Amino acid sequence: MKKRIFGAIVLITMTVSLIAGCSQAKESTTSGASANARTLEEIKESGTIKIGVFSDKNPFGYVDSSGEIKGYDVYFGKRLAKDLLGSEDKVEFVYVEAASRVEYLKSAKVDVILANFTVTDDRKEQVDFALPYMKVALGVVSPNSAMVSEPSQLKDKTLIVVKGTTAETYFSKNHPEIKLLKFDEYQEAYDALADGRGDGFSTDNTEVLAWALQNQGFTVGIPSIGNLDTIAPAVQKGNTQLLEWINSEIESLAEEQFFHKDFEETLKPVYGDEINPENLVVEGGKI
How many domains does one find in the chain? Predict the structure, then answer.
């Protein structure tokens, strides 16, 4: 009798384990699966376009003190909504982190990414980039008391970067002698720099310059490092119709020098005369 009971318990345990294992395998498979992106016509029918932007990268995508989303990328996103759907209010901004930008497109959580997305060969394999609207290089900001003016000064020291950015890729590949302290969000990275947890912070030079201008005691000692890159909108791989519409939009906006207006509205108040718009702005997708 005891043997029968024991056998039954073992059988039940094995069955439950098997079911749980199958369930976990199914969850693991579906969590990494892609979802079909909305077509241009489906976006029009819905009446809203979903655009992924940063919420903590001033002055490109950030939430101000009143809770309003603003910035260079946001200004462009509103224009896309206006020209596609008739009103700039017909945009839903979805906040993303640097490392989640590709995943948000693959899973169709957004239609377009406008989150200071640098074009790279690796990313081209995962998403489709439209024409560029900005050019940028990397920079390094550090405390005035220990300003970093060249990478050799960071040997065996700590450089702060944000995960999933070109800064992480560049320094991992070209300067393995530098220890990297990685964060998911830009605000976390800047807090770490202000707290002295790192000797410098690297991201797009336009962004570190803006932060240094707004935070006394810090200087961009390395204003440009690595290649000159471009920033462009991105859509899910294969979403050709939407991609072609965005490219056509960027080309047509050149007639009114739209991105120079964007610069004047969103970046000029921060940079003043520190940055010549010709060194940053790209009109009509032409470098």
Answer: 2
